[in-house]
Specification:
279 residues; iron; Cytochrome_c550/c551-like; mainly alpha; single chain; Cytochrome Bc1 Complex, Chain D, domain 2; globular; two-stranded antiparallel ribbon; C-type cytochrome
Length: 279
């Protein structure tokens, strides 16, 4: 009987050590500073620029995560994994300068230098100075309201273990991918900042939850009839009535894409699909 008690005590001690290591290690990752310098970007104030900023923010899925009107919301909540809760944009903007907002959008870095999580910086980093300035201009027009989410980000034991293991990586990214203005190739540009947040260009993949399958972007889009592709991106209805997350994103975000933008996206991805076998 005594050896059983000792064994249980040793097991409890081991579990406690693991918990402390996971908590302390993940907390270090969460609080770690990232030396990404601030960059000044011109912020327009005219109504047309603000309206375009609101549209680009929708295409880039900012409003899909932070709420249709930037009010914030809970994307996911589980006692073991944690709570993913993008905050109200007006509340965040009130604490940050324009340059700090630009850095948060492009590089996933908080005001204090720590990293954001579940922020698609690898895609948003492609936004031009012109467009990120328009998005900031739109954010500056938002006001706190009674429907703003009060939820905050938190991490459960499994969530912290994933952070420590690098399976839920920090979004902080120092890469400079942007250009001063929108490039001539709008198809590649929109695909880079909007589509590649979820898809890989030539390979099938999965979302950060590890279970949601995501098809390779180039061959999928290249195979679509142009009219059917427009219907998919506007209504979420493609080869079948429901495409899961894609249908949701189409109805909430991509429906504002113009015909020339969709045509440019498909032309770019057709070219990529044709070049893929030689890669």
């Amino acid at each position: 009987m005594r050896w059983i008690i000792r064994g249980l005590a040793a097991l409890a001690g081991l579990i406690l050590v693991v918990v402390v290591i996971v908590y302390a290690g993940s907390e270090w990752v969460i609080r770690k500073g990232h030396a990404v310098p601030l960059a000044e970007v011109a912020i327009p104030r005219d109504a047309a620029a603000v309206a375009e900023g609101a549209r680009v923010a929708r295409i880039a899925n900012c409003r899909d995560c932070h709420g249709a009107n930037g009010e914030g919301k809970i994307l996911f909540e589980d006692p073991l994994l944690g709570r993913i809760a993008p905050p109200p944009l007006a509340r965040v903007a009130a604490t940050m300068t324009d340059a700090e907002l630009v850095r948060a959008i492009r590089h996933g870095v908080h005001k204090d230098g720590s990293s954001l999580f579940v922020m698609p910086t690898a895609a948003l980093g492609h936004l031009s100075d012109q467009d990120v300035g328009r998005i900031v201009a739109w954010i500056r027009t938002l006001k706190p309201g009674p429907t703003d989410s009060q939820a905050t980000m938190s991490y459960g034991p499994i969530g912290r273990a994933l952070i420590l293991a690098g399976k839920l990586p920090a979004a902080a990214n120092s890469a400079s991918l942007s250009q001063p203005a929108r490039p001539a190739d709008m198809g590649r540009y929109v695909a880079d900042f909007a589509c590649l947040a979820c898809h890989k260009l030539h390979q099938d993949g999965t979302m950060e939850d590890g279970t949601t399958k995501v098809p390779a972007l180039a061959p999928m889009v290249a195979a679509y009839d142009p009219a059917r592709l427009k219907k998919l991106l506007r209504t979420g209805i493609g080869t079948r009535p429901d495409h899961g997350l894609m249908s949701k994103v189409a109805r909430e975000s991509f429906f504002v894409l113009t015909d020339p933008e969709i045509d440019a996206i498909q032309a770019y991805l057709k070219g990529e699909a044709e070049r893929a076998p030689a890669q």
